[in-house]
Design a protein that fits this description.
Layout: E1 2-8, E2 16-22, E3 25-35, E4 38-46, H1 51-67, E5 72-75, H2 81-84, E6 90-92, E7 95-99, H3 100-103
Length: 112
């Protein structure tokens, strides 16, 4: 079973970090910065290259952010296109973003 472990950072650069753990094996991680009502996942790394793990990391990060009062989710992490395609992001100025309630809803149909 994969567990998305949160780690609070509380620095100007990073609010929290999340690790996707399968027992002792880390499958990926992401870093989140919350500024006001905006939550930006600015870094995401997958050790196995599995976009489903990346989706879980984004969902964990945005759920955490929503519980801290954030409403708008942004993913400025480089090379995250395959992962962001799995959620309901809209792209503005080349950056995937959207309201967190919509991002956390289910997605019917293909993930293209």
């Amino acid at each position: 079973m994969i567990f998305f472990a949160p780690h609070t950072e509380n620095t100007p650069q990073c609010t929290a970090r999340f690790d996707a753990m399968d027992g002792e094996l880390c499958l990926g991680s992401c870093a989140l910065r919350i500024e006001g009502d905006k939550a930006d996942v600015f870094s995401i790394t997958l050790t196995g290259g599995d976009a489903e793990i990346g989706e879980g990391l984004l969902r964990a990060a945005y759920n955490y952010a929503a519980n801290k009062g954030a409403y708008w989710g942004v993913c400025s992490a480089e090379n995250a296109q395959e992962i962001t395609a799995r959620l309901r992001f809209e792209t503005e100025d080349g950056v995937p973003q959207g309201d967190i309630p919509t991002l956390l809803t289910g997605f019917c149909g293909s993930h293209s």
